[in-house]
Amino acid sequence: MMSSNTLEALTPTGSFRMAYSSTVFNQVLTFIPRAQFKGFVHMHQGDRYVKKLTTWNQFVALLYAQATGKDSLREIETGLALHEESWKHLGVQSVARSSLSYANNHRDYRIFEGLFYEVLSQCKTVTVEKKFSFDNPLYSLDATVIRLCLSLFDWASYTKTKGALKLHTLFNNRTQLPEVVVTTDGRVGDNTAGKSMDLATRLNRGDILVADRAYVDYREWRKLNDAGIYFVSRVKSSMHIDVVGIHRQTTDSRVIADERILIGEHNGTEKYPDTLRRVRILDSTSGELREYVTNNMTLSAQDIALIYKQRWQIELFFKWIKQNLKIKTFLGISKNAVLTQIWVAMIYYLLLAYIKFQTKFSKSLLELTRMVREVLFVRRSFIDLLSLDSTTVVRFIEPPNPQLTLGL
Predict the structure, then answer these.
(1) pLDDT tens per residue across span 158-184
(2) Measuring CA to CA, how many Å separate 183 from each of 165, 166, 186, 343?
(3) pLDDT for the residue 115
(4) I need a labelling partner for 337 at 20 to 30 A (CA). Which of 216, 275, 351, 396 fits?
């Protein structure tokens, strides 16, 4: 966890005493829980027989690549070599691309996977929840596909001619944080990966889970219902539905029906024997008929439709990380190298989110990303950066007076 001095420094009333002796990059790295990181390195023997390019050194280099948008090991090596005077403060001893390539291919990616969840725990202590018209915590479950060339990434088979990696994600809509990420090759079905998350024990009573038709699974629904967790899904065309009664009458012309139903035929009712609710409603934007199934009997039909619309937040998250993180071009072709890069990218997303929440930065995450990219090796206080934007950040790069220039 961060020290109290660092926390004080990154509040609007605090002062950053290390303002002109540390780079912005070094200040970002203070958010990494080093003790836990060392624990993961020890657990997976990450630094065994290592002389120069330690696991921390590798992590810094890969995080630098994420922050600056580097596409190759040569670019990383060249870029970091230009800032050799900062290596000591960053904990870097080597930037040789051959050493970094070897580390990416052979050093266990689970070190960085473990670090992701430690940083996530840190983020959850300060994140600001978005407001909704209902009180329950809301989670979206979905997956995104990252296309890979099968001839290079032969471990990531998707079809006979295509390769792919999937990121299966449980996304907290209120905090905008990915709380569970499961990586698989493209052949693994969405529902299979979803079941591996064991959401009935991971989520809390009263939480709401929204997922599309790919996750329709009666047994999983029963587990969620037994745990007191609500779910909202689109109705699947192959679902056998028996209407057993009207759930709620409404004067809203958009609500075509609000019904109590039983699902399944033959042994289907054994998988989910309880009554469910089907809401049939006209979409206010497109005018199309939408059908939703849920075990929530309290919220209005309009709220059920609104909950499902909130699933779009996870789509925006996937779009954002694909556009702003380096997870579509890779620095190595082995499975370990790819997963290492994926987990470091996700850590960088959490770091940006943590900084934004902790400092109450009012602008977008994209704005913060662009600003950090431009000033990563500038020796100025991070708190100064937050009062600028992408058009005025040049003031941050230029020394404000000759004395400061001499001091640097």
Answers:
(1) 888 889 999 999 999 999 999 999 999
(2) 7, 6, 9, 10
(3) 98
(4) 351
Given this model, what pLDDT does residue 301 score?
93
233-280 confidence digits (pLDDT tens): 999 988 989 999 999 888 888 999 999 999 987 655 778 989 999 999
More confident residue, 390 or 375: 375
The rounded distance, in Å, linking the Cα atoms of 317 and 258 is 31
219 has a pLDDT exceeding 80: yes
Mapping DSSP onto H, E and C, the string for the chain reads: CCCHHHHHHCCCCCCCCCCCCCCHHHHHHCCCCHHHHHHHHHHCCCCCCCCCCCHHHHHHHHHHHHHHCCCCHHHHHHHHHCCHHHHHHHCCCCCCHHHHHHHHHHCCCHHHHHHHHHHHHHHCCCCCCCCCCCCCCEEEEEEEEEEECCCCCCCCECCCCCEEEEEEEEEECCCCEEEEEEEEECCCCHHHHHHHCCHHHHCCCCCEEEECHHHCCHHHHHHHHHCCCEEEEECCCCCCEEEEEECCCCCCCCEEEEEEEEECCCCHHHHCCCCEEEEEEECCCCCCEEEEEECCCCCCHHHHHHHHHCCHHHHHHHHHHHHHCCCCCCCCCCHHHHHHHHHHHHHHHHHHHHHHHHHCCCCCHHHHHHHHHHHCCCCCCHHHHCCCCCCCCHHHHCCCCHHHHHHC
CB contact set of 166 (below 8 Å; sequence gap of 6+):
143, 144, 145, 146, 183, 184, 185, 186, 188, 190, 193
Between 393 and 115, the higher pLDDT residue: 115
Beta strand pairing call for 208-211 and 230-234: parallel
With 0.85 as the threshold, say if the pTM is over it: yes
Above 70 in pLDDT, residue 87? yes
Q: CA-to-CA distance for 46 and 164, rounded, in angstroms?
A: 27
Compute the distance between CA of residue 277 and CA of residue 297 in angstroms, rounded to an integer: 7
